[in-house]
Design a protein that fits this description.
Layout lengths: L21 H11 L3 H14 L5 H18 L3 H15 L11 H18 L23
């Protein structure tokens, strides 16, 4: 008999009011330094172990970073797909969760994903684009 885990959809959770765990902050720092492979490893570590739906916040940020990693490597299809997956995971956590300014990340990432889709795989803009998103915290002064 195989054990099957029920897949839960991303949904807003009371955990959004919690302070961000140290590994999330580390993953955000790595994301903001464009260390997308490293942020993937960091955020995957907490995403996998998190039983609460807030795990999809971590996974959404992770997938956006992986999308940028694909873009950097010239993989248009991977970039568009992963950015889209990340955006879908982040939607329920708008406008903010665990002090992450999800609204800003979603808006800035969606704009770049739209640009990639308009230009298509044969006209991939150079990476990094001038408006490459960073993950901002709601407690930051911007």
């Amino acid at each position: 008999m195989s054990l099957r885990l029920k897949k839960t959809a991303a949904r807003r959770t009371a955990r959004c009011d919690d302070p961000p765990p140290p590994a999330l902050l580390q993953g955000i720092e790595e994301f903001n330094r464009q260390e997308f492979f490293e942020q993937h490893e960091t955020l995957e570590g907490i995403w996998i172990r998190e039983p609460d739906a807030v795990r999809y916040l971590y996974q959404g940020i992770l997938q956006v970073g992986v999308g940028f990693y694909h873009w950097r490597r010239g993989n248009w299809r991977g970039a568009v797909a992963k950015l889209g997956h990340g955006l879908a995971k982040l939607q329920p956590y708008r406008p903010a969760c665990m002090t992450v300014d999800v609204e800003r990340l979603v808006m800035e990432t969606a704009s770049l994903r739209d640009l990639l889709e308009r230009r298509g795989p044969t006209d991939l803009p150079p990476f990094p684009p001038p408006q490459l998103p960073r993950v901002h915290r709601t407690t930051e002064t911007v």
